[in-house]
Amino acid sequence: MAGVVGGLVSSPVMFATGVLPQIEGLKTPMLVHVLASALIGMTFGLLFRPESSSLGLGVMWGWLFGLIWWYLGPMTFLPLLLAGETDWRASAASALLPSLIAHLIYGAVTALTFLLLEQRYTRELLLNPRTSARELRRIRPVGTPAPALWFFALSMGVLLPILLG
Fold first, then answer.
1. How far, CA to CA in Å, does 104 sit from each of 13, 29, 89?
2. 113-122 long-range contacts, Cβ below 8 Å, gap at least 24?
3. Which residues contact 13 (CB under 8 A, 6 or more apart)?
4. Predicted pLDDT at 143
5. Above 60 in pLDDT, residue 155?
């Protein structure tokens, strides 16, 4: 559900930057975009659920998630599907920089929606003392090196295409 919401919110930016209309081989790019957003949103829960325990951490990990899918989606998988080859040159990355904004929005909205849905679910779980202890152990403590990791990865991911372009 969080991936669908993220995909719908990032769609206007994708249309404005011309990313979705570029997919000429597909008959309905919006439907494909929403379905892909739903599937990709599921991976956010699998990868970043323990990390995103607060609003700030969730949005930051969402940005990193959006950056990862910017590299995987329009720079890797989409060219492989449409042309059969991947173009990782600096010129290709700089041409796709407008879609980076849409992917960062997608990641942040997906993380925010996931966090809101999970908080509602967790409140119900905390009513049961047996599951309460398990859920409280799952949350990472504040002060881990994880924020430094996402900041470094996000900085490198945004700066490398700019510097190489």
1. 11, 19, 21
2. 113/1, 113/2, 113/5, 113/6, 114/2, 114/41, 114/44, 114/45, 114/49, 114/52, 114/58, 115/52, 115/54, 115/55, 115/58, 117/1, 117/2, 118/49
3. 101, 102, 105
4. 62
5. yes
Distance in angstroms (rounded) separating the CA atoms of residues 146 and 161: 24
* Rg, Å, the chain Cα set: 17
84: tokens are 């059969």
Q: Which residue has the tokens 């202890």?
A: 133
Cβ 45 vs Cβ 137: under 8 Å: no
Grade residue 142 by pLDDT with cuts at 50, 70 and 90. Answer: low
pLDDT, tens digit, for every residue of 7-26?
A: 888 888 888 877 776 555 55
| pLDDT tens string 53-82 | 778 878 888 888 898 888 888 888 888 887
d(CA 79, CA 30): 18
For 131, residues 6+ apart whose C-beta sits below 8 A from its C-beta are 125
Question: Of 131, 102, 92, 124, whose CA–CA distance to 36 is shortest?
Answer: 102
